[in-house]
Specification:
Blueprint lengths: L11 H16 L17 E2 L5 H10 L5 E5 L5 E6 H8 L4 H5 L14 E3 L4 H9 L10 E5 L2 E6 L1 H124 L4 H108 L1
Parallel strand pairs: 1-2, 4-5
Antiparallel strand pairs: 2-3, 5-6
Length: about 400
């Protein structure tokens, strides 16, 4: 099982530490020449005084020496003598007489490839590969400033290239693993987003239903308030009409009282005239007394009715005033109900828009989760293919 198939750490601290280690491994820059310092070879240095025979003796004494370097008076590397090329030159039929005593630096390549230690490994390998065929197998001179640090053979360059490939493959594997971990975390987050969006959509739907129900109930209350306003308006009118009728009845009662007073006065005059008539007016006097008594009762009843009408008028006025006050309160409440109904309408519209947005988020999260799943499968396939090839 590869690392891509293991479960990622659940602890946030572990994830942060893993990310820090990963970033450190990917971003740490080596010092100049650190990547190929271990491959540098130390080789002998010659001056103008060394002869070709001296160089042959050096090669014979140490078969592992690939070359020797000629350094000028300023101790700067100025020439390269490769073992095989030098042997071929010195192994001729007359070479002993012609070359052995001559200065060896004259047979050196005075234009070897020199690369400073600060050069990146990639650039070094690129320049070495771009050399012409005649110099392709020559050593590469590494300098530290103007001084010789050592050489790299073709074998060293191949080993260096192989090491770089292994390091690049290791970084690639790390990147694949980290990418897999990140995609897994993204997938988990998107799954949570998708679930939250689905829950939000469901709750928004329920809220929209509640808002619609509340709106309908407020509309019913508003309708009831309007009916109550109409009824209170009618009652106010009836109370006002009752006050007016009571006033009219009170006026009529006053007229009745006036008539009773006049009847009492007439009865009194009739009684006086009957007394003057003596025996003949006695019967008329009895009628006059009865009329006077009836007028007195009528006046008393009229007074009672007047007091009752005044009381009724006061009650009707209080009722009308209360109806007006209640009507104002009801009208004020009706405006609040209308505002509440409007708010429910706006809430229903807003919740519906949120529900639509939540559905879009859910669909996008679902599509993204599927894409991330495909990426995870591709990353796992790449890692497995790397394991199978190794």
């Amino acid at each position: 099982m590869t690392l891509l198939q293991t479960k990622p750490a659940q602890s946030a601290v572990v994830e942060v530490q893993a990310e820090a280690a990963f970033e450190s491994r990917l971003t740490t820059e080596p010092e100049a020449g650190a990547s190929y310092r271990q491959y540098i070879r130390k080789v002998p240095i010659i001056r103008e005084s060394e002869s070709c025979l001296d160089v042959l003796n050096m090669f014979a004494k140490d078969p592992s020496i690939p070359c020797v370097i000629y350094c000028n008076e300023e101790d700067r590397p100025s020439g390269l003598i490769m073992r095989d090329v030098f042997y071929q030159r010195m192994m001729g039929r007359f070479s002993v007489d012609l070359y052995y005593t001559r200065p060896a630096f004259r047979f050196a390549d005075h234009h070897p490839m020199k690369i400073d230690m600060s050069e990146r490994v990639g650039s070094l390998l690129q320049m070495a590969l771009e050399r012409p065929d005649s110099k392709f197998y020559d050593c590469v001179l590494l300098t530290d400033g103007d001084r010789l640090a050592g050489v790299l053979t073709v074998r060293d360059l191949m080993r260096l290239s192989s090491g770089l490939q292994a390091e690049a493959e290791e970084k690639r594997e790390l990147i694949l693993q980290e990418s897999y971990r990140h995609t897994h975390n993204i997938q988990s987050s998107l799954t949570e987003v998708r679930e939250a969006a689905a829950k939000t959509s469901s709750e928004c739907k329920q809220m929209r239903e509640w808002s619609h129900t509340g709106k309908e109930k407020l509309e019913l209350v508003r309708t009831s308030y309007l009916g109550l306003v109409d009824d209170m308006t009618k009652r106010e009118g009836q109370a006002s009409e009752l006050v007016q009728n009571a006033s009219r009845i009170s006026s009529i009662t006053g007229m009745i009282t006036e008539l009773a007073n006049q009847s009492s006065l007439l009865a009194m005059n009739a009684s006086i005239e009957a007394a003057h008539a003596g025996e003949h007016g006695r019967g008329f006097q009895v009628v006059a007394v009865e009329v006077q008594s009836l007028a007195k009762q009528t006046r008393k009843l009229s007074g009672d009715i007047s007091e009752l009408l005044q009381h009724i008028e006061r009650l009707a006025a209080d009722t009308a005033e209360g109806a007006v006050s209640s009507l104002r309160e009801i009208q004020s409440c009706e405006s609040h109900v209308s505002e509440g109904s409007q708010m429910f309408h706006e809430m229903e519209t807003t919740v519906h828009e949120i529900e639509i947005s939540g559905n879009r988020v859910y669909q996008l999260a679902e599509a993204t989760v599927q894409r991330v799943e495909r990426v995870k499968l591709e990353l796992a396939g790449m890692s497995n293919s790397d394991v199978s090839t190794t």
